[in-house]
Specification:
The protein has eleven helices and no strands. By secondary structure, the chain is mainly alpha-helical. The structure holds iron/sulfur cluster (SF4).
Amino acid sequence: MERMSVDEILSHLDRMYPDAHCELNHANAYEMAIAVILSAQTTDASVNQVTPKLFEKYPTVESLANAELKDVEQCISRLGLYHNKARSIVNFAKGVVENYGGIVPDTMDDLLTLSGVGRKCANVILSECYGIPSLAVDTHVTRVSKRLGLVYQKDDVNTIERKLKRKIPKERWIKTHHQMIFFGRYLCHARSPKCGLCPFVSICHEKNKNL
Ligand code: SF4
């Protein structure tokens, strides 16, 4: 297997996805946080289908904190796990109102105290809402990192986050996160990756055997 430096990998991603960005529609930190909590185990496109109605009905974190759970469930019932997700976002809103004065917090430690927020969500909120260098590890980043040999197959998400942050310059964390998601979402699919179009075939640990 050939070798490719991290710089070369990043250059390829720059060429392929110069405009990679967050695809969850949002207008402010409150909406971003809710959208990313809802995005667990579903696609951004599915979340974008339910959030317009949800944010129209609950335009502020205070309004969501005071919402009836069954009404919130109705708004997001197209999503899988909507009972749990409705409870998570209402409790998240309550936590923000009661403990942070209605402002979505901007530190990892504070975010992790809130309902529905794990490290992945917190990293997305920090980078998207506050521009704080962060690198969220989701299913795409995990798969792509392993295929490109940036991490080991056995590594868990916390280890992957730590290794990527060590290998990738801090000023590139946010951009690289989006580019890896675009690469995983549009080319390096889980089941049928488009390896014929991929610049990483020579270093890939899992390329399509039909090439
Ligand atoms: S060669 Fe195929 S599996 Fe490997 S990184 Fe490229 S698209 Fe993904």
